[in-house]
Structure prediction request, 513 residues.
Amino acid sequence: MAVGERQKTWTWSYTFLGVIMGLLLPAVATMLELALGQRQLTLSNVMWAQSRLSVLWLMDLSPLILGLLGRAVGRQQDAAVLLNYELERRIHQVSEANRALATEMTHRAELEEQLRHSQKLEAVGQLAGGIAHDFNNLLTAIMGYSELLLDELGPRDSKREYANEIHKAGGRAASLVHQLLGFSRKQMIAPRVVDLNAALADSRRLLERVIGEDVRLDLIKSEYPVHTLIDPVQVDQVLVNLVVNARDAMPDGGTVTLRAAWVTLAEADCDFNPEAKPGEYCLLEVSDTGVGMDESTLEKIFEPFFTTKDKAKGTGLGLATTYGIVKQNGGFIDVMSHLGDGATFRIYLPLRDACEQKAVRNVRRAAKGGRECVLLVEDEEVVRALASKALRDRGYEVLEAEHAEDAEAIWTKRKNDVDLLVTDVIMPGLDGKRLAEQLRGDRSELRVLFMSGYDCALLSRHDVFEDETEFLPKPFTVDGFAKKVRRVLDAGSVIPLQVPVPVEDGVTMAQGH
Prediction:
């Protein structure tokens, strides 16, 4: 009922009642006079009664008087009803506003928590990126010189075990730095279109060795091909991290299920995760029948260095790395778990067309040595000495320079002899990219190999990856460095940039958990 109708309801009701009472009042007075005079109801007696009522003329006005009185009373009643209605409406508005405020505060608290989480990841990521350069230079020396020592020690030498442990420790440390850069989305990658069905099948044997005999591994492939753009090494890293976590959550054995699927998310399907957006996705799902997680654990699982395992069993970087890899490739993660009911990790990656994969030229596997002249520019003395020895031991002539100014002086005297420029990217003064451009100004056919221990975000600001070029990230092994140099020298033309740490280049990156 409208407000105007509510306001008139009692007014008209009381007015009508007053008029009716006003009409009945003269008749009631006449009947009362007849009763008091003990007279019968006849016309003459009625006229007699009316002649005795001196104020009867006033009663003739009673319909008007009582109608107006009723109207006044009705208006007061309507005012009270309207006031009550308005009060109820305002109370309802306040309640709705309170509910909206509570919802907004909850949403704001969630956003603030996400912001704090992102800031925490970014802070550790900046720290990781800052220490990566110095760490990787040191690890290059540790791994390189331990490799040289292994080559010199005989297979039965008692010291060989010590050198081997040093080399393995360097590899584990390199893996730790790689994971730190991984969750902060700053590690070097070489993405290509990957079929998740094939990736699961290829990883099965490795994963079965990881989980042990008391855990069953089930694979559920998609009915349709599911292609996404990602570094295949990152797929393996994600699978190993999640499967290892699943194994540790099932101390008495159980089942780990890996599933690939093609899913389409509509707008209404994205409420489960604030990072979800409508579109087509490749779904990679890893579920287990383990002990599960409570709410407090679920809130922290992607934080770096958070772990529920013993210190000897985990670094707390496995899931943080997984989170960083997924974000780096344009996806998001959804986790479902309850205590005693296992856990399910659903990774959504953008769906890509298999035809997007560009063909990569086959490069002939190169020999380990050569007679060419290499101009080596490296400001870190220990890395420069290692790289120089690795090349000289394989027959190359090496011209060493600490920075770009020294390299330019050497180039002035020997530019016709130099076959390859191997340079660090970020150095005091002129950086490696600008140095290469200057030298190529004299000889455009000069081949160049860049190397660096910095993360790819910083290197991108130095335009290292703008053109097709060759790059070797630190830390690298002696054998890997020599193979890379030989590969660049043997290439008929400059070949596409390969920024990951490939096995064929001799870089040992153990999967860390």
Remarks:
- The longest strand covers residues 254-265.
- Residues 373-495 form a domain with the Rossmann fold fold (CATH 3.40.50.2300).
- The chain is about 50% helix and 15% strand.
- The chain has three domains: 3-107, 192-356, 373-495.
